[in-house]
Every structure is written in structure tokens, then in C-alpha cells.
Design a protein that fits this description.
Elements lengths: L1 E5 L6 H14 L3 E4 L10 H11 L7 H4 L4 H9 L5 H27 L4 E4 L2 E4 L16 H8 L6 E4 L6 E5 L2 E5 L13 E7 L2 E7 L3 H9 L6 H10 L7
Length: about 240
């Protein structure tokens, strides 16, 4: 059984199309999505429409949730005052995404579960009960076990942090799929996870980044210049 997990697309249709081509070459039996599909990119509706047409099961992400519950962003921002500029920027990018998606697509996003289970594998966006908080790459084995042990799964996959990794723990493997768009590990290529008979591996896919830059420049999206800097750097760039 070969399963692919594709997460954190953030409206980047160019990267997503490249990942779809790579998936055709790898022929997984099942493809799941890890949430954060639309907000933050030039073509949120197109990404959502493709995933729905493909019929991929998946989970809800935090930037999916803010489309119908912006108060979730406000509540999380209150806990991290040092990141207020970041959260203000995200808040200003939400209304155009809502307008582009429309109520029917947003209702579909709202219907997505927080946990998707397939056999001995569990998929979440960040943590089982929190769309906003998750361990980092640098987190200890104990922190990973505390976050995901309650899922009682031999393999736990999550996204959210945009930095792919695979960690073997006693009785459990934890893997992060990385981000199709906006990787934060210094590698500008799209990332997704391929699980072959229970063994996860990270796939990196080149795409025409400057084509997506052009789409962002023409999108009218607030703070598109910031999103472009992240794409070109392959890592998080602070708000200017």
C-alpha cells in the first residue's frame, strides 16, 4: 500500500500542479491532504476545486479555519504578542481568500475533520486537538510522544510547520510532510510525503517558481510581496 500526504498548498497552483505530475509518476494507492489548502496564495479556489475533483480525503488546517472563524486567529495572536505583525498581515489576507472561495467551498473546508485515520496511520494538521500548535523539527522525542502518543498510531503525519522530517520513536514514527508552497527549510522545491508499506520518505519537486511569482504579482492579494519573498527564499521571512 502506497499513500501520499500533500499538505500546506496555500493557494500555490503552480507548485500543486508540479506535485500532481510527480504523483502520477509514483502512482500511490491513496492520496490524503493535510489542510491549509487555500489561504495565502494567488489561486485559492482553483486549488480547492482540484482537490475536490480528485476526491482526496484530508483534514482541516488552521488557515482553513480562519476563513470562517477569524476569531481563532485573534485568540491565538493574543497568546503570542511578539508575532502581532505576522498575525495582522494574515488577517489582512483573509478577506480576499474568502471572496475568491465563496460560501460553498468554505462550507466544504469547514466539513473537514481534525484527524484522518487509515489503518495504523493517523494524519493531523498540527496536533490532534489544536490546529495552531505542534512540535518543531528541533522538538525532543518526549515532546513528539506527548503531542501524538494519544493517537495510538504506528505512524503519525502532520504538516503546519513547513519543514519536513521523519523521526523514529519507540513504538511510533512521526513524520512531517512539509509544504507544497512556502517551505521553511531553505529548499524552494515543493514537498510532500510518500509512505510505501508503512515506510515514509520525503519527496521534493521542482516547479516554475517565477510563474507563481507572476501570479501573485497580478493577484491583488495584500502582502503578495511578502509571500513572494518567502517563495524565493524557501524559508520564513519576517514582515518588512
Amino acid at each position: 500500500m502506497r499513500v501520499a500526504i500533500v499538505s500546506d498548498i496555500h493557494g500555490n497552483l503552480t507548485a500543486f500542479d508540479a506535485v500532481l505530475e510527480d504523483l502520477k509518476r509514483n502512482s500511490p494507492d491513496l492520496i490524503l491532504h493535510g489542510g491549509d489548502l487555500a489561504q495565502g496564495g494567488a489561486r485559492p479556489a482553483e486549488v480547492v476545486d482540484k482537490i475536490r475533483a480528485l476526491g482526496w480525503p484530508g483534514v482541516c488546517g488552521n488557515t482553513d479555519e480562519v476563513l470562517w472563524a477569524p476569531e481563532a486567529l485573534t485568540a491565538y495572536a493574543a497568546k503570542a504578542p511578539k508575532l502581532q505583525a505576522l498575525f495582522n498581515t494574515i488577517a489582512e489576507m483573509i478577506p480576499p481568500a474568502v471572496a475568491a472561495l465563496g460560501p460553498e467551498r468554505i462550507a466544504w473546508l469547514k466539513s473537514l475533520p481534525k484527524v484522518e485515520r487509515r489503518g495504523s496511520m493517523a494524519l493531523v494538521h498540527a496536533s490532534p486537538n489544536d490546529l495552531w500548535r505542534s512540535p518543531l523539527v528541533e522538538s525532543s522525542d518526549a515532546e513528539l510522544a506527548a503531542a501524538y502518543g494519544s493517537l495510538n498510531a504506528s505512524l503519525v503525519v502532520y504538516g503546519h510547520i513547513h519543514r519536513p522530517f521523519i523521526r523514529q520513536l519507540p513504538g511510533m514514527t512521526v513524520a512531517n510532510s512539509g509544504s507544497v508552497s512556502m517551505p521553511y527549510d531553505g529548499d524552494i522545491r515543493a514537498s510532500y510525503l510518500l509512505v510505501d508499506d508503512g515506510q515514509p520518505s520525503i519527496r521534493r519537486v521542482e516547479y516554475e517558481l517565477e510563474r507563481e511569482v507572476e501570479a501573485l504579482q497580478n493577484s491583488g492579494l495584500p502582502h503578495a510581496d511578502w509571500a513572494i519573498r518567502i517563495l524565493r527564499a524557501g524559508q520564513y521571512v519576517p514582515i518588512a
